[in-house]
Design brief:
With about 290 residues, the protein is α/β, with parallel strands linked by helices. The chain is about 40% helix and about 20% strand. The chain contains 9 helices and 12 strands. α1 packs parallel to α2. It binds NADP nicotinamide-adenine-dinucleotide phosphate. NADP nicotinamide-adenine-dinucleotide phosphate binds next to α1 and α5.
Length: about 290
């Protein structure tokens, strides 16, 4: 007790501190700090959101905040992340911080993880970054193909591998990885991106088995078309889902303890059919 604030923590105790604040955390708490703000930290869970400038990630951050979890927004565009963090704080009252992260700069990933550890009691991970360059660009320039593979696969493997020991050590937490239906079958029009997502799906399967042993759950989400910057202006899209609807579905799957989820759910039968078309026919399709 150092004068000023009141702190009510997981143990149910009351503590007065110098910050002039009230803090009630560890079990879904309220924090009233020096600035006079109220912050919620639901059950001590903090979602690290990788690729937090995406529309999908922004919707997830808001939904996580509404459920009382703190968020750490990781990405390249600091100004954009700060805006989202302010918005999440204002609309939900949770803690929202920003962490620099570039999937392609794998040498910096240890520092990214170290930066997160100090800011979260119990980390959960939402991996949303991705890059879908047009297939014809990937065919014309290997550099485009390499960037696609390095972002979607190598970058994800790098950051998840460095986060895995942290998750194992905490012995709880949740991991959500955004894959894609494109990873279920190599298609004429999108096979470089699809192959990177297929690799990611296989990696995440193994990671699930590893982290399950430590009490950490891993959910692979395979969306179909979602209305985001990635698909903006692309021809031939159908059954396009809204990011907020995808996120609602992700939380439903998390609550049910699912491990792989097609979102929206109708993509499961669609992909089942697509996966079973014999190769000699599939190669003739212009998809
Ligand atoms: N939209 C769809 O139809 C669809 C369908 C299936 C799966 N997905 C997957 O859903 C996820 C979210 O994508 P989205 O649709 O919301 O597209 P988006 O708006 O283009 O978002 C992609 C995000 O990835 C980030 N990113 C790209 N390269 C990065 C790098 N090197 N380091 C860090 N961040 C990087 C982007 O950050 P910057 O702003 O810094 O570029 C952006 O925030 C992706 O994994 C995507 O593959 C999307």
């Amino acid at each position: 007790m150092s004068g000023g604030g009141i702190e009510l923590n997981g143990g149910g105790g009351i503590e007065l501190n110098g910050g002039g604040g009230i803090e009630l955390n560890g079990g879904g708490g309220i924090e009233l700090n020096g600035g006079g703000g109220i912050e919620l930290n639901g059950g001590g869970e903090t979602w690290l959101i990788l690729g937090a400038s995406s529309a999908l990630a922004r919707a997830f951050a808001l939904a996580a905040g509404e459920r009382g979890a703190a968020v750490l927004l990781a990405g390249r565009d600091r100004e954009d992340l700060e805006r989202t963090a302010a918005d999440v704080r204002l609309r939900t009252g949770v803690r929202a911080g920003v962490v620099p992260f570039d999937a392609l700069d794998v040498a910096s990933h240890d520092a990214t993880v170290a930066g997160c550890r100090g800011q979260a009691d119990s980390l959960s991970v939402f991996l949303a970054f991705g890059l879908m360059l047009p297939q014809d660009r990937c065919e014309e320039s290997f550099d485009a193909a390499r960037r696609t593979i390095e972002t979607n696969y190598l970058g994800a493997v790098s950051i998840l591998s460095r986060l895995a020991p942290v998750l194992e050590a905490q012995g709880r937490g949740r991991v959500v990885v955004i894959g894609s239906v494109a990873g279920d079958r190599g298609r004429l029009r999108n096979y470089v991106y699809g192959s990177a997502k297929a690799g990611l799906h296989a990696f995440v399967q193994g990671l699930r088995a590893r982290l399950w042993r430590a009490g950490v759950s891993v959910l692979t989400v395979k969306p179909g078309f979602v209305d985001t910057a990635m698909t903006w202006g692309l021809p031939g899209l159908f059954l396009v889902a809204e990011p907020a609807a995808v996120v609602r579905s992700v939380f439903r799957q998390l609550d049910r303890g699912r491990e792989v989820a097609y979102v929206p759910a109708f993509w499961l039968p669609v992909m089942l059919i697509l996966r079973h078309i014999p190769e000699f026919l599939f190669k003739r399709l212009n998809v």
